[in-house]
Amino acid sequence: MKRHKLKKERTIRKLTMKELSFELGVSETTIKKIENGDRNPSIELAGKIAVFFNKTVEELFPEFF
User: Fold this and answer.
1) pLDDT by residue (tens digit) across 9-29?
2) How far is the C-alpha of 47 from the C-alpha of 57, rounded, in Å?
3) What is the CA radius of gyration of the chain?
4) Is the pLDDT of residue 1 over 50?
5) Which of 61, 15, 21 shows the shortest CA–CA distance to 30?
6) Sign of CA dihedral 37, 39, 40, 44
7) Residues 35-59: pLDDT tens digits?
8) What is the dihedral of CA 27, 28, 31, 37, to 10 degrees?
9) Sign of the alpha-carbon dihedral angle for 22, 23, 28, 29
10) CA-to-CA distance for 24 and 9, rounded, in angstroms?
11) 40 exposure class (CB count in 10 Å sphere: 0-12, 13-18, 19+)
């Protein structure tokens, strides 16, 4: 799987994986797997991430489109 821009956005905002996972209501492991390219977020989670970072899903996960 391809890497997403999630890690870049998270580090720009100086958030830990734990902090981001809390904000999104998912496990830290989920964030880690998405950042490492080991799994893709669900459509729902991709939408939550995009809203949180004030980006579009297409900007964060361009390989889906």
Assistant:
1) 999 999 999 999 999 999 999
2) 6
3) 10
4) no
5) 21
6) negative
7) 998 999 999 999 999 999 999 999 9
8) -110
9) positive
10) 14
11) middle
